[in-house]
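Go through this pair.

…
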Amino acid sequence: MSKPEPKKISPGSSKTLLKGLKALEAVCLKKEGLKQSELAALLGADRSTALRILNTMTAAGYLSRDADGRYRPTMKIPRLSHHILEGMEIRFYARAHLDKVTLETGFSSHLAILSDEQVIYVDGVEGSGVVKVNAGVGNTAPVHCSATGKALAAHLGESNLKKLLYSTPGETYLKRYTEKTITGYPELLEELALTRKRGYALDNEEYEPDIKCIAAPIFDYSGAVAASIGVSGTVSKIDGLNVKLLAEKLMAAASAISLNLGYIQSEKRGEKNV
């Protein structure tokens, strides 16, 4: 029987990256872990190449090395899978509400989740005639100065919040994006407390000049914050309408999505089920 022809690599593809991805798949599929020599044989590469690939993925947090020299996947991989699956589930329940919010307000709407130390947009609907904001699917935004990020961060608890904001050891600052960005931790805590109290978050030109955003949190069956839904537009257009009315539409949409995710609101306002 003739051997199947190897797949051709598309122009512009990275051979090194493809080898790295193949190596990651191999380690994940090997329950007892994979040694450097085994990976080299599998890739048809020399041991030094296999070691560079393994060291790179270990440094990035995807693999760990046992005392016997075997490499195994870390929990970073299932955590990323969890975010992907969670995003897919929420998108299913949120899509109709994104359409409705954009139709009723004319503003671009977006759905966001937390992924590692940043906000990632998993769905959205563009409003006609509205200035486009960097909130397309797959795009990211900082937690501390985006409305979607603050809506999520307000319900994390302070210990989790610090881990999220200061992921690098020794880091003590919040990056400034505009003149209005909150860069002090105490000031951010006050802002997040206000966000929890009123039920929605605001980004008043804190991430991008002349762009204002409003967002509300979405909770899952356990009472944990799972995502946020928001709208964005120019300051003049947002302020030209009733901000509170826009926020109420978002909170209503967020509540409906949360209900679909199994969330049960406590009788006490603002208290999540545990």
